[in-house]
């Protein structure tokens, strides 16, 4: 941006000068914010009348939701986002002229936090339900139906598992032993693969559980925590001898088939449907439109390209008067930096940047250590657009819908680069209708690439990744020809890994943060990687700082 000035956000909050009549485009000085070399500066304000200042570091869905939840409180809110745009892993852009999400494309309706937030910001009428909730597993040389009666890949109907063909005959026979095996004891947290494998054998883990967990976390069941990724099943497993029976106790009555999940779509609940409809929803313009709407509705001062480099308690903050700020943030480069004082701070950033910011904070060492134990997986979403006629079907022009699925998952043991595929124009009917008038209908396909430890794969060029995804899609579906358009979106360090001991790490972080008055944390590193879970942590963080400020900041 050089030395030019650009308005970032105009926000009117209590304690600031009211907007008065002015020529179009002119902003009153008390509300004018502009960027200089990425650092946003505020105009004149009267500190004697200023309200308590809450600074939120991070402009992803959690940070923006926290700002929104503070909108009616007597505080001034500033959101500092280090990148040039808002939204974190929520973004939408066009592929072949069709708006398609680049990151998370759906959220759970079985948790109220996500749908509630959508309603609060006025987007309830834009919600869309999936057109189909069936899915497949591409394994053992064919697309095979994902068993209906399963909880995150853990089967409850072993006869159905055998019929599905997802596991071999020997694998199905081994799985059936779960019904007769004595209870499997565990002392503390264990890897998902260890416990589920002890009950059902390796094939169920490799061809069912691992693909579902890989779609959510881009992780591996041999590393992921049973207690953290499947808390309901972990609890139920202590009440039942059979893990199949434990899984069945968590499922609704038989209903339509489960849909595949990709990063950010799952909050540790069974994929699929529920009584009365699908467990997933999205927005007609894409979930990527939510951040901008949320930022505007929050009334906060929202600043992009404003990297927070340091956080420290104010000198003497422990014994500071109730009216004094407790935190100081350093924003921007060393050459052009800004110092911001705050009464409360919410860290809505991933574990590693949160740890870096806490380095200079006395009493934060336990949180820093725990943050350092949380690793992250990178991934990419390759979006492909094809003419509908490119897909063979039982009827001319039937396209992907003829397969009867909304996508498929791919087990890591099969050695493929793509771990999950969503037939977006089948799953979301509004995308099938978005083709330009007079043009041949398009099929939009999203391919999820990359698991933990596959960084070398993700270092390939965009064109190479797109070609690889297209080739694997052709092998699975028989699509003819090249896509007419493609888009590669890379999400570096996107997904926290809930490895064994994760719940203990989170407890240590929260215990340490609780000793630091006026500080709170939120985001995907804590109780779930999906949107509803992130929103829940945002509300908790907003409540925490509100209670602190209402209590006289003691």
Description:
With about 550 residues, this protein is an alpha+beta fold. The protein has three domains: about 30-85 and about 290-375 and about 500-550, 3-Layer(bba) Sandwich (FAD/NAD(P)-binding domain), CATH 3.50.50.60; about 105-130 and about 375-495, Protoporphyrinogen oxidase, mitochondrial, domain 2 (Polyamine Oxidase, Chain A, domain 2), CATH 3.90.660; about 150-250, protoporphyrinogen ix oxidase, domain 3, CATH 1.10.3110. About 30% of the residues lie in helices and about 20% in strands. It is built from 18 helices and 26 strands. It has a seven-stranded mixed beta sheet with strand order 10-9-22-23-24-21-25. A hairpin with a 2-residue loop joins strand 5 and strand 6 (about 100). The longest helix has 20 residues, at about 530-550. It is globular and about 70 Å long. The two termini are about 40 Å apart. About 55% of the residues are buried. The model is unreliable at about 1-50 and about 255-275 (pLDDT under 50).
């Amino acid at each position: 941006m050089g030395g030019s000035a650009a308005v970032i956000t105009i926000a009117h909050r209590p304690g600031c000068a009211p907007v008065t009549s002015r020529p179009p485009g002119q902003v009153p000085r008390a509300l004018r914010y502009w960027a200089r070399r990425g650092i946003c500066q505020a105009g004149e304000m009267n500190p004697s009348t200023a309200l308590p200042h809450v600074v939120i570091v991070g402009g992803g869905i959690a940070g923006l939701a926290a700002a929104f939840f503070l909108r009616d409180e007597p505080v001034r809110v500033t959101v500092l986002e280090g990148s040039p745009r808002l939204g974190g892993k929520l973004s939408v852009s066009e592929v072949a002229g069709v708006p398609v999400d680049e990151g998370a494309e759906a959220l759970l309706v079985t948790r109220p936090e996500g749908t509630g937030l959508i309603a609060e910001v006025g987007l309830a009428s834009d919600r869309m339900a999936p057109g189909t909730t069936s899915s497949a597993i591409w394994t053992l040389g064919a697309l095979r139906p994902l068993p209906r009666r399963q909880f995150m890949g853990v089967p409850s109907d072993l006869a159905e598992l055998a019929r599905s063909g997802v596991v071999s005959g020997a694998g199905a026979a081994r799985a059936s032993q779960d019904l007769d095996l004595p209870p499997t004891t565990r002392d503390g947290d264990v890897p998902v693969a260890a416990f589920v494998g002890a009950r059902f054998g390796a094939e169920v883990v490799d061809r069912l559980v691992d693909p579902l967990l890989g779609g959510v976390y881009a992780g591996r069941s041999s590393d992921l925590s049973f207690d953290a990724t499947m808390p309901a099943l972990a609890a139920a497993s202590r009440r039942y001898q059979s893990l199949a029976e434990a899984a069945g106790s968590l499922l609704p009555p038989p209903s339509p088939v489960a849909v595949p999940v990709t990063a950010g779509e799952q909050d540790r609940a069974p994929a699929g449907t529920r009584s009365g409809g699908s467990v997933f929803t999205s927005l007609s313009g894409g979930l990527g439109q939510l951040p901008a709407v949320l930022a505007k509705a929050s009334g906060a001062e929202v600043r992009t390209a404003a990297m927070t480099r340091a956080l420290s308690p104010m000198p003497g903050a422990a014994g500071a008067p109730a009216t004094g700020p407790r935190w100081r943030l350093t924003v921007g480069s060393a050459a052009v930096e800004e110092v911001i004082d705050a009464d409360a701070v919410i860290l809505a950033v991933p574990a590693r940047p949160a740890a870096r910011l806490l380095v200079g904070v006395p009493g934060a060492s336990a949180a820093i250590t725990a943050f350092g134990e949380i690793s992250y997986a990178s991934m990419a979403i390759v979006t492909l657009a094809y003419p509908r006629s490119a897909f063979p079907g039982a009827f001319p022009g039937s396209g992907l819908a003829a397969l009867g699925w909304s996508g498929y998952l791919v087990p890591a043991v099969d050695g493929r680069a793509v771990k999950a595929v969503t037939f977006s124009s089948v799953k979301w009917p509004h995308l099938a209708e978005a083709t330009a008038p007079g043009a041949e209908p398009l099929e939009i396909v999203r391919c999820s690439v990359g698991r933990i430890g596959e960084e070398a794969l993700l270092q390939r060029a965009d064109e190479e990744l797109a070609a690889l995804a297209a080739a694997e899609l052709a092998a699975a579906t028989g699509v003819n020809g090249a896509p007419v358009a493609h888009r590669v979106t890379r999400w570096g360090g996107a997904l926290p890994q809930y490895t064994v001991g994760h719940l203990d790490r989170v407890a240590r972080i929260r215990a340490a943060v609780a000793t630091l008055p006026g500080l709170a944390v939120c985001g995907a590193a804590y109780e779930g990687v999906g949107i509803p879970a992130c929103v829940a942590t945002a509300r908790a963080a907003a409540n925490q700082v509100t209670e602190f400020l209402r209590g006289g900041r003691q």
